[in-house]
TrEMBL record:
It holds the Pfam family PEP-CTERM. Residues 1-21 form the signal peptide. InterPro entries: Ice-binding_C. It comes from Aquincola agrisoli. The lineage of its organism: Bacteria, Pseudomonadati, Pseudomonadota, Betaproteobacteria, Burkholderiales. The keyword Flavoprotein does not apply. This is FxDxF family PEP-CTERM protein. Keywords: Signal. It comes from the Bacteria. NCBIfam families: PEP_CTERM, PEP_CTERM_FxDxF. Residues 139-163 form the Ice-binding protein C-terminal domain.
Length: 166
């Protein structure tokens, strides 16, 4: 009986060591350009959460890539998802899958608030696996900005027309 308990404890310990889940807060309020890289040892599965805040309405460009060297550094089944923290709703229609080539998506008109990326994968390289997430934010203009632009163009047109008439 003792022997089976020791075997069971060993199996559970190894399973726990082979799977990793981590939460990171590297950015706080998202600047216009952010990047995050992380490495895991070989024969590991992982699921990381990267939290951040958007201070205003924004377009968000997300890029994911695993940094690979054949047989040495390798991640398989890499995926990137984006969630709104208030209700854990997925923002992407489907997860981005990535490997040694990058994958990217532009998400338009996200509201201000808290968000998080979830990065998943399995390290199959003989040494380690490393991934990089790059996130670029551009502000979405307010409707008043467009109204001001159109008003300015109208004034320019009006002045040009008056000059032409004179």
């Amino acid at each position: 009986m003792k022997r089976s308990a020791v075997v069971l404890a060993s199996v559970l310990a190894l399973a726990g060591a082979a799977a990793n889940a981590a939460t990171f807060n590297p950015w706080g309020v998202h600047d216009s350009f952010e990047s995050f890289s992380f490495s895991y040892p070989t024969q590991t599965t992982f699921e990381d959460r990267i939290n951040f805040t958007l201070s205003g309405a924004s377009d968000l460009w997300s890029v994911a890539v695993s940094n690979e060297a054949p047989l040495v550094l390798n991640i398989t089944g890499g995926s990137l998802e984006l969630f709104r923290a208030s209700d854990n709703a997925a923002v992407f229609n489907s997860p981005l899958t990535f490997d040694s080539t990058s994958t990217s998506v532009l998400t338009s008109s996200l509201a201000a608030g808290d968000y998080y990326y979830v990065v998943k994968g399995a390290v199959t390289g003989s040494v380690a696996g490393t991934y990089t997430i790059t996130s670029v934010v551009t502000a979405v203009p307010e409707p008043e900005t467009y109204a001001l632009l159109l008003g300015g163009l109208g004034v320019i047109g009006f002045v040009a027309r008056r000059r032409k008439a004179d």
